Amino acid sequence: MKRKTITRIGIAAVLLVGLAVGSALAQAPVTIDFWGGWTGPDRGVMENLVNHYQTQNPGVKVNLFTVQWTPLFDRFLTSFRSGEVPDVFAMHVQDIATFAGRNLLQPVANDVATAGLKADQFAQTAWNGTFWGGTQYALPLDLHMHATFVNLDMFKAAGLDPSKLPTTGAELIAAATRLTLDQNGKHPGENGFDPTKVKQWGFGINSNHHAFYYFYALLAQQGASFLDPAGTKVIVDTGKAERAWQWLQDLVYKQKVVPPGETNAFQDWVTGRVAMAVDGPWQLPAAQQSATFAWGSTTFPNVFGTAATWGSGHVLTLPVKNDPAKRQAAIKFITWLLNNSAGWGTSGNIPAMLAARQTQEFRSLPGRTAFVNSLPFVVFLPDIPKTNQVFSAAGPSPIVVAAQSVILQDAPVSQALKQLIDGANQILATP
Amino acid sequence: MAERAATSTRLALRRGASSRWYGGATPWVFLAPFLAAFVLFRLGPVIGGFFISLTRWSIVGSPTWVGLANYRALLRDPLFHTSLINTLFFVLLTVPAMVALSLGLALLVNMRLAPRIFARTSIFLPYVVMAAVVGVIWNWMLDSNFGLVNYGLKLVGLGPFRWLTDFKLAMPAVAGVTIWWTVGFNMIIYLAGLQDVPRELEEAAMIDGAGALAVLRHVTLPMLTPTTFVVLMLTTINAAQVFDQIYVMTGGGPGTSTLTLVQYLFYQAFQSFNLGYGSAVAYFVFLLLAVFGIIQLRLVHQQVTS
Amino acid sequence: MRPSLRRQSLQFGAALSMIVVGIVFLLPILWMLITSVKPEGQIMRYPPEFIPRQVTAENFASVFRRFAFGRWAFNSIVVAAAATLLVVPVDALAGYALARMRFPGREALYMLILSMLMVPLQVTVIPLFIGFTEVKMLSTHWALILPTVGNVTGVFLLRQFFVTVPAELEDAGRIDGANQFQLWWFVMLPLARPVMATVTIITFMSSWNNFLWPLIAVSNDFTRTLPVGIAQFMGGTSGASGSAPTYGMPTAAAAMATAPAVVVFLAMQRWFVRGITTTGIKG
């Protein structure tokens, strides 16, 4: 008798629990996992956008996870084994092949159609960058590229016209020379100039992987490419390549307008150590917050005749997953994000959506002009499955080693170039 | 006289402590919990890692078997050679300094004086700081233009030094940061060892007229031999596998001047997605350390089991 | 009279050295704390400002407001504490057996165990990941706790210590009729306190600061630990295509992340008191 009662109670309990769980699940919000590599103030901007979306859409929960790009990619790859794949995955334009080439991304043509998004709503370069091998794998969020930050107060103090900022290589060097002052107020090239006692430098450049990006742009300015169209080997014209590296190296050691051993051009600029510095728009919020002087921006110098500047862009992808409900929610979120990307513009990145750039919100942001003006001549790194290996930003990668030898060590340019080409070819050759 | 006899008996007994023979299950019962965890979470994965090193694999998809090809390629790889030389350089820069300094600090901090807790805590404190934070702090401190270190040196008329961008200074800079970061760890090992040196011995020697230095040389240091062995071994093994601080401070640069073996492993396995090739580097490290370890153990084994 | 004066000045010199050394070691950490209370816009200044012009708690508040910092800290504490509580007795048992019991294969086993110290841990991350995926234990606290129990350093330190203990102590205990376990518990462990304190500290730190494995093993905030959590806003180097580094929030988070580990160390301090190991040989 007792046993039967207990059994009955047991069954009832299980049913009740099952009902509770079932109904809870039925009402559970849809959760989207959104991963990106933003770890600076831009993370904060994305966070605000995500929170905004959740407030407007109470049935949806968006989990934002960010960590630096390299560990992020490792996490992403391992997630396919453990089945915890994110719903929306951000990356750069040149990373698409790395993941699409491993069949980890879903083609988005249908989703684009359903969402009503069209190519003419976006900057052409950004839109084109979302395709690989003829298939569209991503949606463009923004573009970012190099430009030169300028300290206008120093400009005026040096007797230069702040409304005529340098745009060519020659103009840049002329201005930078005027802006480089040693303790006695002498400029490089003048008698008595002491390069060991400089109190203000004219120009700042980074010596990390970004220095390779300057080189890459200077190649494009000469109409040269680094890799063959298939991305299987290096075909760069050595003459043009050496000229590009030499121009950069001369800034430090011949023109003496760049401080030797410089690590962080932007930091030097915002603290008043250099008058001009090349960096990306992600530094704009820091400039707004920390610069204690009047400032502006101009385009990356056109040294060799055809304007070109390195750039990239953040794109949003849909990793391969078998969950139609989440995919729908993901697309809805992405569409909202793109339509509200003027807000993303406060992070410094330039929204890819044309309408976003027309809004008052975006236009009122300071310092963006040079970056927006650069849009027509942005060049991306090649988008091949081995991009993250050949053009790796990690220390020992051939592009970083070459950049540092040329800029930090004053190594002979031909030697650095040869090492770069050999290193890149070796990576491209291994299966 | 009688005291001295008793003292030397204790010393003698200390060295040759013998252990008894056990048949049966008892030792294994004692070892079981550790062995279970060890096999599951250490030995197993290490063997797994070795199998991965015999393949070509980029985390996603299936691995492709390549046998010893990765190892052969490594032998011809100039970056691998560079990382080997850099690692040896790093070991030479840090290990002797670390052993000597941690011993000295332990002796200092062991004295029964008022500031000892402050000193002990301050010296150890860096050890609890995470690698990423160490990177943030020291990239800032060693900055050529804005760093505190160069600022301080400027006040005495030296510098400025391009600590992290000069090809010749980067490794010494990283070595210096490493010593700041981990000398506290070795110091507490020495401190634990010092607790084992009976005060009576030291005091007996001093009563007999020996000066502090002589006591150090003839009483304290010999009794610390096992501890020194531990510190030496752990420091060398850790130095050979240095990674965290290099990753956050220089990433192996400038150029390849701070590229160490494990840094190269990480670059290949986790930054270039060549998991098999990167893992092979690890087993080379193991081989090198195993050879070193065998030599050292032989030497000490002779001493301990006399 | 004279030895006393000399002794006093030596002691004074030693005390002074202790203070100076302490300050030198603390300096970078102090600098981090000072940076963490400055408003972000005032951090990159030259010459460096030791005394902040403005002090703010904004960086700290920001961390709590925007991130599940409390949850991460809780996870880190739970994982590190559990790991340490498991490791110390387990390693003490194993170390004792390896040091004081002779059995066939002992030396080979010890060599095998030690040899694991010589393999860079990074290679174990993917195999561990595959293993935990198979048993569906990813993103659990146990996934973070258990691998630490396989750590070898503790066994190494304890074994080295137990080898140095005189045999008389055990023999005396055996004559009194104690079995092996009682010998271990009542005779060996009390002697090993300083070493066990060391192992406690080392294990706690090792677990606390672990980054790569928790990054791969955990995919939600619920189980995430501090190092992975705060990496979300540790920009590292600038221009890693896209992010500008900030210093305020990372240093604030770092300061808070360091505190519990400091507490553990301070708690273990009193175990380093000389005299506990006065050898039991009394005549």
Shape of chain C: flat
The SS-based structural class of chain C is: mainly alpha
CATH class of the largest domain in chain C: Mainly Alpha
The assigned structural class of chain A equals: alpha/beta
Q: Number of DSSP strands of chain A?
A: 16
CATH topology of the largest domain in chain C: MetI-like fold
Annotation, overall tally of beta strands of chain C = 1
How would a textbook summarize the main sheet of chain C?
none
Q: What is the mean predicted local confidence, pLDDT of chain C?
A: 83
Give the oligomeric state: heterotrimer
- How big a fraction of the residues of chain A is strand? 15-25%
Average of pLDDT of chain A: 90
Q: Which percent band covers the strand fraction of chain C? A: under 5%
Q: How large, in whole angstroms, is the Cα Rg of chain C?
A: 24 Å
CATH superfamily (homologous) name of the largest domain in chain C: MetI-like
Approximate helicity band of chain C: 55-70%
End-to-end distance of chain C:
35 Å
Task: Kindly summarize this structure in a few lines.
The complex is a heterotrimer of chains A (431), B (306) and C (283). Chain A is of the alpha/beta class and 431 residues long.
Write a structural description.
The complex is a heterotrimer of chains A (431), B (306) and C (283). Chain A has 431 residues and is of the alpha/beta class. Chain A contains 20 helices and 16 strands. In chain A, 46% of the residues lie in helices and 16% in strands. In chain A, the strands form four sheets. In chain A, strands 2-1-3-14-6 form a five-stranded mixed sheet. A five-stranded mixed sheet of chain A has the order 9-10-11-8-12. In chain A, strand 4 (131-132) and strand 5 form a beta hairpin. Chain A is globular. Chain B contains 14 helices and three strands. Chain B has a two-stranded antiparallel sheet with strand order 2-3. Chain B is flat. Chain C folds into two domains: 2-58; 61-279, MetI-like fold, CATH 1.10.3720.10. Chain C contains 13 helices and one strand; from the N terminus they run H-H-H-E-H-H-H-H-H-H-H-H-H-H. At the B-C interface, helix 1, strand 1, helix 2, helix 4 and helix 5 of B face helix 1, helix 3, strand 1, helix 4 and helix 5 of C.
